[in-house]
Amino acid sequence: MNTQVYNEEIAQKSGWVSAIKMEMSRVLVGQKQLVNRLILSLLCKGHVLLEGVPGLAKTLSVKALAGTMRAAFSRIQFTPDLLPADLLGTMIYNPETRQFAAKKGPVFANLILADEINRAPAKVQSALLEAMQERQVTLGETSYALPNPFLVLATQNPIEQEGTYQLPEAQLDRFLFKVIVDYPTRDEELQVLSMMSRTTATPTTSPVVSVQEIEESRALMDRIFIDPAVENYIVDLVRATRTPEKVDRHLDSMVRAGASPRATISIALAAKALAFTRQRSYVTPQDVKDLAHDILRHRILLSYEAEAANVTSDNIIDSILSKVPVP
Length: 327
Known about the structure:
five-stranded parallel beta sheet, 14 helices, Rossmann fold, Helicase, Ruva Protein, domain 3, 2 domains, alpha/beta
């Protein structure tokens, strides 16, 4: 296919991306990285973990995104006493028909806001894991497909330890991105004050994109070209997380386990999505580098030596990106 024609088609079909950004800017100040990652997750059918201290608009950003779509939205507040049935639903006995019927829970929606996900115990996390990976829920002896799209957008607070449970590595691996949400700049905070310091008429978002439009964009995104050299670069980056001492001797004994092949797939998919939002028909090494931290940081398990030396997974990724040859 002619590259110019393909680029024009991408430009035409990606108009909803700027529409979502504009609509979310009505209620969200700054946080451009967060908004970009949420849009990429829509294209990739990927789940997102948002980590940051309270009050940084993590919940607001997810609600704002849901408002821009003509799709079902559920917010679930995770607590230590939450039960799997509170999330998935349960079987209800009908005395008139003498049969059990499924009462579906709040997980049956297109966008799920799992607020403070690390407050729920293991039983709830295992129930959510099936929904995230298989996109289905089992009630009784029957499995029910979840709607399309189905995205879990989870938040967690990194500084509070009481009443929290560490997410299992298997579940962390199911998140496409782990986005660190940081404090706003001074000018942004002034803008937040001006926008939100009122008790009435708080701004909201309006629908600007349909599920059908996103599906059409995904089909177009699948045809975006990744050069074999870039594919090799992605594989080299992921493999370097498993044996980082081979690219940097200072990282010896710093990593217990590196990223799985799911990370390789995630980088390739997200790079295609990023190229799509940048209205380009091919992936560049810079696309890969721009995504590496958010895709890899929650997939690298640090050793005790790394924790003792205050080395973070982001430090490991920085070193790998600087050492692995770029095509």
